[in-house]
């Protein structure tokens, strides 16, 4: 079968934890990899795709489909076949896959292939991720029992434009996976941001108790650096401001801003030279009183 070009759908797969499997048992992994290649090649051909053998590396597969619906059906069939295969206990096979639709030249290289590869890097074993472009093409023609779950927008490594990622769901596939390994899932020791500081002007002014929560945020130390959520905390009841109405002073509580008073400080004493200091000393203190 001729490899399709132009507007095509890419299917990229690889085995999760394959290096660990090779270190555990080389003989079992070699036999499992042969079976893995047979299953993927068969399902790709059955759904109208072509495998680019010169583009894969290790245990990965690079397939091209002229129709997005055929690529999605092939990805689902591959995961169902991998999940039902009796793999060796020491070297279980879990395949992660990604689908993306874009332009392909004669060499099948370009930014769309790179985006599909970065999308595959987010997936976990047994998971099929679909880009927003492919999801829009196949939303009305999914395989029986299949559906798309919106996982939100994610930033991909080395790519400036984020991608809206979808997960291919089916009753025969696992539905719960760890969070995607995108640039948004960075590790830190700060508490979860409870609210968004941007655009909260209409909400934080009317009631000082609307932002109260049982969770707490650090107020000192390295964990408090860069915190931006202090304006959404209620003001202490001890903060007061003063106002004058018809010559009389009244006091009211301010839920938004405190009035800070400058602390009193002793005025600085003008410096005197050492000569002036000795000239102005009184005679009684000019010499030390001696006991004899």
Written account of the structure:
- By secondary structure, this protein is α+β, with helices and mostly antiparallel strands.
- The chain has 7 helices and 9 strands, in the order E-H-H-E-E-H-E-H-E-H-E-E-H-E-E-H.
- The strands form 2 sheets. It has a 7-stranded mixed β-sheet with strand order 2-3-1-4-5-7-6, sandwiched between helices. A two-stranded antiparallel sheet has the order 8-9.
- The model is unreliable at 230-251 (pLDDT under 50).
Summed up:
The protein is of the alpha+beta class. It has helices at 18-24, 26-46, 68-84, 111-122, 132-138, 201-204, 274-279; strands spanning 6-15, 50-51, 61-65, 95-104, 128-131, 147-154, 163-169, 240-245, 248-253. The strands form 2 sheets. A 7-stranded mixed sheet has the order 2-3-1-4-5-7-6, with helices on both faces.
- Give me the CATH fold name of the domain at 7-169: Alpha-Beta Plaits
Residues in helix, %: 25-40%
Instruction: Give the oligomer, counting copies of the same chain as homo and different chains as hetero.
Output: single chain
Tell me how many strands there are. 9
Main attributes of the structure:
alpha+beta; about 290 residues; two-stranded antiparallel sheet; Alpha-Beta Plaits; single chain; about 20% strand; seven-stranded mixed sheet; 7 helices
Q: Which SSEs are present, and which pair or pack?
A:
Layout lengths: L5 E10 L2 H7 L1 H21 L3 E2 L9 E5 L2 H17 L10 E10 L6 H12 L5 E4 H7 L8 E8 L8 E7 L31 H4 L35 E6 L2 E6 L20 H6 L13
Parallel strand pairs: 4-5
Antiparallel strand pairs: 1-3, 1-4, 2-3, 5-7, 6-7, 8-9
Helix pairs in contact: 1-2, 2-3
């Amino acid at each position: 079968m001729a490899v399709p070009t132009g507007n095509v759908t890419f299917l990229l797969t690889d085995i999760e934890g394959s290096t660990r499997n090779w270190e555990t048992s080389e003989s079992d992994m070699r036999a499992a990899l042969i079976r893995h290649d047979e299953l993927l090649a068969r399902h790709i051909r059955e759904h109208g795709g072509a495998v680019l053998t010169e583009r894969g590396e290790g245990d990965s597969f690079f397939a091209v489909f002229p129709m997005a619906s055929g690529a999605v059906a092939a990805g689902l069939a591959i995961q169902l076949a991998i999940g039902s295969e009796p793999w060796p206990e020491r070297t279980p096979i879990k395949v992660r896959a990604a689908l993306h639709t874009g332009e392909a030249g004669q060499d099948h290289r370009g930014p769309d292939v790179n985006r599909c590869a970065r999308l595959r890097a987010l997936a976990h074993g047994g998971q099929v991720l679909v880009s927003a472009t492919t999801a829009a093409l196949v939303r009305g023609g999914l395989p029986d029992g299949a559906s798309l779950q919106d996982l939100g927008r994610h930033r991909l490594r080395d790519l400036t434009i984020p991608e809206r990622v979808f997960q291919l769901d089916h009753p025969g596939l696992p539905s719960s996976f760890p969070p995607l390994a995108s640039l948004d899932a960075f590790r830190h020791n700060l508490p979860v941001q409870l609210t968004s500081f941007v655009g909260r002007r209409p909400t934080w002014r009317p009631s000082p108790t609307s932002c109260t929560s049982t969770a707490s945020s650090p107020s000192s130390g390295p964990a408090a650096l860069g915190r931006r959520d202090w304006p959404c905390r209620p003001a202490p009841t001890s903060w007061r401001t003063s106002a004058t109405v018809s010559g009389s002073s009244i006091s009211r509580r301010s839920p938004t801003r405190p009035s800070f008073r400058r602390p009193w400080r002793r005025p600085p004493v003008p410096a005197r030279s050492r000569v002036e200091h000795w000239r102005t000393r009184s005679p009684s203190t000019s010499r030390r009183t001696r006991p004899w």
